[in-house]
Amino acid sequence: MNSEALLDLSDGEIEIVLNDLVEVHGYDFMNYSRASLKRRINRLVANDKFLSFAEFRYRLRNDDVYFKRFVEEITVNVTEMFRDTQFYRTLREEILPVLATSPLVRIWHAGCSTGEEVYSMAILLQEAQLLHKSLLYATDINPAVLEKVRAGIFPMNQMKRYSENYILSGGKNDFSSYYIAQYNAAKFDEQLGKKIILANHNLVSDSSFNEFQLILCRNVMIYFDKELQERALKLFDDSLEPLGFLALGSKETLKFSSISHKYRQVANKEKIWRKIK
């Protein structure tokens, strides 16, 4: 038998794995996009050189350390600082001046991954002189990525691109003033990190935990099926103040959702909506 075939889990085996995750670990991935999930799981199985489904299943059910690795690999989303520069320019020029009128600014980064977008927001707030009265809630299903956000350390080899993104998004300062170079890593200013509150939060099963003026969930829901997208959007709606803003990823939309009538798109090209009802 071709050993390559053994590395490719069937739809039925993926279903068994998803049931195990709920039963043993309390993690529900049932409504994640099945094609994306299957691709990521099979890549993990191949990378970790499992020879049989039974071996992989046993390890996932019984080895807590390996389960953590599984969650990391399945949920980590690629991100970068000031990604989609026009989006950040819109935040800087149109959204932050509105938030500036609030006595306390509460922002939720849902599915924050390793935190590049959270630190980008902290820099925007600092430059708008709003950071002192802001709280940035950064949540993710994956505890390992939250530790990376807490550390505020990013690869030095990314700084050139991040600096270019920063300038294109309207940044006027020297981007390197926000971090200290440490060998091959960049450690970001602790004053930025002090305003970031970290929490493990599952968009599938957890409820609203605060009221926010701005919620960002970018390039997370593309991995959800329609039912889970709807559930997440209702959660954001419950968590957003009247006249608050909701920002999604470039391939995501509020259109066709049950809450769409309560929102007006702020800028046609950018996926930002304002709650008007």
TrEMBL record:
Any one GO MF annotation of this record: S-adenosylmethionine-dependent methyltransferase activity
Chain ranges of the CheR-type methyltransferase domain: 2-254
SUPFAM superfamilies given in the database record: Chemotaxis receptor methyltransferase CheR, N-terminal domain (SSF47757), S-adenosyl-L-methionine-dependent methyltransferases (SSF53335)
Name of the protein described by the UniProt record: Protein-glutamate O-methyltransferase CheR
Origin species: Dawidia soli
